[in-house]
């Protein structure tokens, strides 16, 4: 397998995983600081999806850091296949959750013309924005993993 930026065990791979984890944790933090997010199923789904993303990205960031310390690159086809499946599953869940939450947020801001929750609406928007940023980094990682598997 070829070694290019973003593959497991490289610095760019570690940075991608850390950014996924930070954006997902920021989305969770922004949403959970509101008092009424649990009233909306889409927001609860966003919390669950981003929670899964934090766990997945953190574990893979630890593996990348371990590989960097040992100066070893993960190119085992079975391990890369696991990364591909995990990345695509979490990417799909994250995009679905961010899109559903964005739909609810747009409903309150645009369609209803107002938001009765005050400051919470801005937190909802922040959470959705961070969820989309997390999805962009997850999508990047999943494409790199698929490319690595195909090049193998």
UniProtKB/TrEMBL annotation:
The domain of life for this entry's organism is Eukaryota
The question of whether Calcium is a record keyword is answered with no
Q: Does the keyword Transmembrane apply?
A: yes
Q: Transmembrane region positions?
A: 40-63, 84-109, 129-150
Keyword annotations: Cell membrane, Membrane, Transmembrane, Transmembrane helix
Chain ranges of the Casparian strip membrane protein domain: 7-136
Q: Where is the signal peptide?
A: none
Instruction: Write down a Pfam family by its short name.
Output: CASP_dom
State the coiled-coil residue ranges.
none
Q: Which GO terms describe its cellular component?
A: plasma membrane
Task: Name where it's found.
Answer: Cell membrane
Main localization is: membrane
According to Swiss-Prot or TrEMBL, what is its membrane topology? Answer: Multi-pass membrane protein
Q: How does this polypeptide assemble, per the annotation?
A: Homodimer and heterodimers.
PANTHER family recorded: CASP-LIKE PROTEIN 5B3
> Family assignment?
Belongs to the Casparian strip membrane proteins (CASP) family.
Protein name stated in the entry: CASP-like protein
């Amino acid at each position: 397998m070829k070694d290019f930026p973003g593959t497991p065990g490289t610095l760019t791979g570690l940075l991608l995983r850390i950014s996924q984890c930070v954006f997902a944790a920021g989305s969770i933090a922004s949403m959970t600081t509101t008092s009424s997010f649990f009233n909306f199923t889409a927001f609860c789904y966003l919390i669950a999806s981003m929670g899964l993303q934090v766990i997945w990205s953190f574990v893979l960031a630890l593996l990348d850091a371990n590989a960097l310390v040992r100066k070893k690159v993960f190119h085992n086809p079975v391990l890369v296949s696991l990364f591909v499946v995990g990345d695509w599953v979490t990417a799909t869940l994250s995009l679905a959750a961010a899109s559903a939450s964005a739909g609810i947020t747009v409903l309150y801001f645009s369609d209803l013309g107002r938001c009765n929750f005050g400051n919470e609406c801005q937190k909802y928007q922040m959470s959705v924005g961070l969820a989309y940023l997390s999805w962009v980094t997850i999508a990047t990682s999943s494409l790199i993993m698929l490319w690595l598997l195909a090049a193998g």
